[in-house]
Fold this protein.
Amino acid sequence: MAGIWRRWRRYRTKVRQYISHQYLREIVYGGSDGIVTTFAVVAGFTGANILGSNTIGITMGAVVLFGLANLFSDAVSMGLGDYMSIRSQDDLYNTTYKKELKHLEHSSKSFSKRIQDKLVDKGFTKSDAKEIMLLFHKNPEFGIEWLMREYHGIPNPGDSRPIFSALATFVSFIFFGFIPLIPFVISIPDPTQAFLLSINGVVTSLILLGLIRWKVVGYGLTRALGETLLLGGVSASIAFIIGAIIGA
């Protein structure tokens, strides 16, 4: 039993590290956006019913259908957007890397001066800058990595996998975005009661996202929950206000 527990702890640590390094941004970003997206649909329907001006006769079934359609279409859009964003960043990095590597290999005076001036700006003396430039020629990959980060401001994408990042965004969007719709999916008859349960679902979803940030990143629980609830709560409140105005 103890051996199984140790293996589980090692596996859990590896999973947490992998998520931390790869897909935490996609999970939080997709999840929070999914919550706000579906809550806006719920808010519009509830606002129309509470204010008694549901002139187009929106039923709870229509809310579910529209909410699910909106949920999946936006999830696909966000996933594809995330994929294209990462691919574009990778292409930019690789193109610039090859260009600067060619400059380093040809040792043009303008290129050497550009790097040495940057090193001087970072606090090195001119003689130190020349020595470092020689080291860059001995290890071109290290030199270009430094140049990409410090001069161009383009971080190394590392072992990026755009398709998995897009999938993480899509799944997180669907999972968290579905929670506010649950009271309407299970057909709670009273729109006000369904809306209150939906609010509880929003809060629960935001708390879950905060706990994920806390466990993966490792900073304080209060900060992780506080930031997530505050930012998500503000976004959800704006979604409700806009939805209620449109629904009215």
Summary: Residues 90-150 form one domain. The CA atoms of residues 179 and 204 lie 9 Å apart. The chain is about 85% helix and 0% strand.
